[in-house]
Amino acid sequence: MKKAFIKSNQEAVKLKIQLARALADYDNLRKRIEREKETFEKVANLKLVIKLLPVLDTLKKAQGHLKDEGLGITIKGFEDSLKGEGIEEIGVSRGDEFNPEIHEAIDVGEGSASGKIEEVLAGGWKFIDGPVIRHAQVRVSK
Fold first, then answer.
1. Domain segments of the chain: what residues?
2. Cβ 105 vs Cβ 132: under 8 Å
3. CATH class for domain 1-85?
4. What are the pLDDT digits (tens) for 71-118?
5. CA distances from 46 to 22, 87, 117, 134 (A)
6. How far is 140 from 116, CA to CA, in rounded Å?
């Protein structure tokens, strides 16, 4: 009787260990699937953002010509939506020092100050406190 009790007690301990391992495996799997889901959503969102940035560029160019208040509201809403997704515009303006980490030199001009931005052709975008999504496209002086 004592041997049977010891044997069943050992089996219970083994089953407890197996259950604990199975629960840990399940928890690890659940966490991995959640991380993969977040990564997939980020990649899908990023692809959409990359496709929509040229539309935003066009709206901004149109606003420069039309001075339409409704267009300005649309652009602001667009930018606010991007900010809500953790994406912000890279601040760049004429006269800034060229930085290859955030700028892309599309053209080189004959400006007075070498290595300075002469013109911003398209704004750059990046994740807030993160990597660049699209470099600012600029004309740089020689």
1. 1-85, 87-142
2. no
3. alpha beta
4. 999 999 999 999 998 899 998 888 889 988 999 999 887 766 778 898
5. 36, 10, 27, 11
6. 6
For 50-71, what is each residue's pLDDT tens digit?
A: 999 999 999 988 988 887 788 9
CATH 3.20.20.80 assigned to domain 87-142? The reply is no
* pLDDT tens-digit readout, 1-44: 566 667 788 888 999 999 999 999 999 999 999 999 988 888 78
Q: Return the HEC string of 25-68.
A: HHHHHHHHHHHHHHHHHHHHHHHHHHHHHHHHHHHHHHHHHHCC
**Rounded Cα gap, residues 26 and 100, in angstroms:** 45
Lookup: tokens for 94: 């004429």
